[in-house]
Amino acid sequence: MVPEPFVVRSKRQDTSDTWTLELTSVADDAGLHFAPGQFTMIEAGGSGEVPISISGDPGEPDVLVHTVRSVGLATQAICKAQPGQVLGVRGPFGNSWPVELLEGRDVVVAAGGIGLAPLRPAILAMIANRERYGRLVLLYGARTASQMLYVDELERWREEGFEVHATVDSAGPEWLGHVGVVTRLIGRARLTASFAGLTCGPEIMMRLTALALADFGIDGEQLYVSTERNMQCGIGHCGHCQLGPWLLCRDGPVFDWQTLAHWLQLRDV
Amino acid sequence: MQALDELIAHVPTFAGLSEEQLKLIGGCGRNRHIGAGEMLFAEGDPADHFFLIRRGLVALEVHAPGRGPLRIETLEHGEVVGWSWLFAPYRWQLDARALEACELIEFDAACLRGKVAEDHELGYQLMSRFAANVISRLQATRFQLLDVYGKSEVTA
Description:
The complex is a heterodimer.
Chain A: E1 4-15, E2 18-25, E3 39-43, E4 50-53, E5 64-69, H1 73-80, E6 86-93, E7 106-112, H2 116-128, E8 136-142, H3 151-159, E9 162-168, E10 178-179, H4 183-188, E11 195-200, H5 203-214, E12 223-226, E13 242-243, E14 246-247, H6 248-251, E15 254-256, H7 257-264
Chain B: H1 4-8, H2 19-26, E1 29-34, E2 39-41, E3 49-55, E4 58-64, E5 68-75, E6 80-81, E7 95-98, E8 102-108, H3 109-118, H4 120-145
Antiparallel strand pairs in B: 1-8, 2-7, 3-6, 3-8, 4-5, 4-7
Helix pairs in contact in B: 3-4
């Protein structure tokens, strides 16, 4: 599968090491239709491809939005891309957050760090159909206040029907919100067994979130996680992302926790 | 106006205690209002009271020379502020500051320690509940120390 050319239309710095890029297709005005939770394989300047979750609004497929953290050569090249530069994009790939399946339910979204980026399309999709859901709760944990993503949007999401709880791991006197780990928010959000959950963040954060949610009756079958370990081809051919019986790029990246928990908790894997 | 024993009956730390035990605990408490920015207690001070938050947000802080107050954790509605009143030498190890106007129940630690000395069942119940609190917050602190959102994270 050959990468399609996408041009960078705009770029915004979110944190010290994270940028959000808006891209449009060079060849196709229709853009890239995607479901919340899907990802693309993206490359800039011959620095190699990486899987990046789509973080845009699924209702606006003409603009492809990616929030990217600069952690290696490939992501560094993407983050350095300037408006007008052309990047190679393959996809969208993978399955999606089950936002339609969860209609009629209370939903808690638990995000850690840049894990909010893959969840943003699901949040926007649920807001677009707010009347189809019960309580919608966002629990967001970040390292510091300056490392939080989409700060301007958090208040808007609150106005549009999400209960938004944010916390940071450490803070100085200027921060007047919560300090502590994201799982501490679970007890404060008055969750019940009526909730289903979506979570994305560091694996250890997702594991502890699953444990904490279970204390409130939200078991592993009601909790969906997204993981992108070792993806390389994006289409299930290379086998790099195999985890147990699953190829994460083809069968995921979204799984219910019950399905993946055993494999994610294996040591040395 | 609701009696203190009725107010604390629904708080996780005290839930499940008998009416009599709740009355004993409530008898050592009083309502208190604290304004935004005011200190509940300061590191090194005698731990002669502790608090239950009815409304508002309280920060636990450590003061570091040259760095100002470092915020360790925040606590809110339904949570207890303070453990040091339970253990000798009964001195606060941290600062506690109201980040917004707070409605609190302040408990007299000497009063409650006296009742616990006479009623070991009450002492056991309180110790079990505060130990659960300590464990839960210790585990959260360990998680916090891992810095899980650091550079090693590559998701997305």
